[in-house]
Amino acid sequence: MTFRLRTISRDDHLAFIRGLDSASHTQVPSWGGVKPDWRSESLGWLKDGELRGTALVLYRPVPKLKRYLAYLPEGPVIDWHDPDIGRWLYPMLAYLKSQGAFSVKMGPPVIGRRWDAAAIKEAIADPAVHRLGDLPPTSEDPRAAALTDRLRRNGWRRTGDEEGGFGAGQPRHVYQLPLEGRSLEEVQQGFNQQWRRNIKKADKSGVKVVLGGYGELPAFYELYAETAERDKFLPRPLEYFQRMWDSLTAEDPDRMRLYLAEHEGDTLAAATTLTVGRHVWYSYGASTSRKREVQPNNALQWRMIQDAHAGGASVYDFRGITDTLEESDPHIGLLRFKSGTGGGAAEYVGEWDYPLNKLLHKALDLYLSRR
Predict the structure, then answer these.
(1) Buried (b) or exposed (e) across 114-136, using 16+ Cβ within 10 A?
(2) What start-end ranges are recorded for coiled-coil regions in this protein (predicted)?
């Protein structure tokens, strides 16, 4: 079966995504509006006039040259387990080259390995285990290994492998809480004792979690800026979140939500979620150092998990985690927090580069490695 690849309208793209249980929030048409420095385009694979796959492509221009890095974050949305993956990717590469792309980066949304919470807990306590990769997986999908072999044979290079790459984009390791076929009581029973205790304490202390809107984004951002200073990361500007809200909610009013945890009139924590189909992501979180004893973060997450469950979600995705299990790593506390809900860690097959112009590809790769 051969496909015809062409540009498609935002409406056709969105209609295809709406017919799926899950697709990345970075592969919906509105995500292009979140990234104004990139030009976006929707592509579709057709057979007999029917859409079989889609892609949101982001083009990043090279200064002074009419050449682009073409990026498909967590995409394209195709049949990744097709043994003849080339019939999907070769037309895409040819089209992107015709549009001036000198290199293509994509992120197949394919999970290869999983580790459950019990295995992670034991590994953190074991000084001989340093990274998730050192830990035997709880489950493994052989189709993911087959896909990576096919990609390499077809000339793709995994970002971070010895061949080089443009550095980290979307997270390779994530933490997910399955909701499919489980009651809320069963979900909470999977939490560890500390989590259940903290939820009860927040409730007894009078913590209330409310939904916010565009007007509450500055309140979220105040906490986010404090979190950035405390955890020593570079924050995005408020305009980024306002742009995200405008773009995503215009496409679907439930695509993005803002939650705020309040106690006696004081906003202590806030977070955003993103939803596509039956997949809900915890996107950005923020909190103050004040009144931590009333456990606003546990209350916030529990409300978001409850709402995801009520909306029919099959998975609540805590998004990125570190792959290190070292006690000295500053991110280990976040992994402990997420793993306290049960669920498990998952490893995607990673992001992959295809150099259409090897000279320009290598030059940009070198430039980014020195930033």
Answers:
(1) bbebebbeebbeeeebeebeebe
(2) none
Query: Per residue in 73-95, pLDDT tens?
Result: 999 999 999 999 999 999 999 99
- Residue 322's pLDDT band, with cuts at 50, 70 and 90, is confident
| Domains observed in the chain | 4-107+351-369 (3.40.630.30), 181-313 (3.40.630.30)
- Please tell me the distance from the alpha carbon of residue 284 to that of residue 220, in angstroms, as a whole number: 10
- Give the pair of three-digit tokens for residue 296: 């606003």
Residue among 198, 313, 320, 173 nearest 254 (CA): 313
Dihedral angle at the C-alpha atoms of 16, 19, 25, 26, nearest 10 degrees?
-20
Ramachandran category for residue 277: left, alpha or beta (phi over 0 → left; psi -120 to 50 → alpha): left
**In the 8-state DSSP scheme, what is residue 215?**
G
What pairing do the DSSP bridges indicate for beta strands 315-320 and 279-287?
parallel
Alpha carbons 269 and 286: distance in angstroms, whole number: 6
Q: At what angle do helices 296-310 and 193-205 cross, to 10 degrees?
A: 100
Q: Which residues contact 171 (CB under 8 A, 6 or more apart)?
A: 319, 320, 321, 348
- In this structure, what DSSP letter does residue 236 have? P
DSSP alpha helices (H): ranges in 266-321?
296-310
Q: Mean of the pLDDT values across residues 272-290?
A: 97
Per DSSP (E only), the strands in the chain are 4-7, 39-47, 50-61, 68-72, 101-106, 111-116, 139-140, 157-158, 173-178, 208-212, 256-263, 266-276, 279-287, 315-320, 344-348, 352-355
Question: Per the structure block, which two tokens stand in for 76?
Answer: 């394209």
* Residue 14 identity (one-letter amino acid): L
Looking at residue 167, what is its pLDDT?
Answer: 41
Mean pLDDT in the chain? 93
